[in-house]
Amino acid sequence: MAFNGTWKIERNENYEKFMEVMGVNMVKRKLGAHDNLKITIQQDGNKFTVKESSNFRTIDIEFTLGANFEYSLADGTELTGSWNMEGNKLVGTFTRKDNGKVLTAYREIIGEELVQTYVYEGVEAKRIFRRG
After folding, report:
1. Cytosolic fatty-acid binding proteins domain location, by residue (predicted)?
2. Beta partners for 84?
């Protein structure tokens, strides 16, 4: 499974602006841009286990493709939604519990990198990871 492995953040594109539109305050945006995020992904068929480890927290997330689950962002924003596979890309559609607005997330392998793309209120950001 292409996503399997440990991935370390290498760079961000437009991430601070994305966090601003999400309502994250300036101090948390500055810290979030340098969170040293490491993601470990293990796929077993339609089931995924993802461990996210950063300067702020370490959490384990388990989900099955197509099944709704709840998730909290590092800033405490609560979401509900699901991941689905579209071709070789994971596509996540999540709804914020506080305002009902949709956050879309994509995970795909491009070359040697894991690229996570987020879209919220018309603002797109990318976080690019390399195997660690």
Report:
1. 5-22
2. 91
Q: How large is the greatest C-alpha to C-alpha distance in the chain, in angstroms?
A: 40
CA gap 45, 2 in Å, rounded: 12
**Which token pair is 43?**
């796929």
**Could you say which DSSP state residue 4 is in?**
-
HSE-up of residue 14 (Cα within 13 Å, Cβ side): 13
CB 94 within 8 A of CB 105: yes
Q: Are strands 58-64 and 5-13 parallel, antiparallel or unpaired?
A: unpaired
Q: Determine the Cα–Cα distance for residues 63 and 61; give it in Å rounded to an integer.
A: 7
Q: Which of 9, 1, 12 is nearest to 42 (CA)?
A: 1
CB distance 64 to 58 below 8 Å: no
CA dihedral 41, 46, 47, 51 (to 10 degrees): 20
Contact between residue 53 and residue 37 where contact means Cβ atoms under 8 Å apart = yes
Predicted model pTM: 0.94
Quick one: residue 47, left, alpha or beta (phi over 0 = left, psi -120 to 50 = alpha)? beta
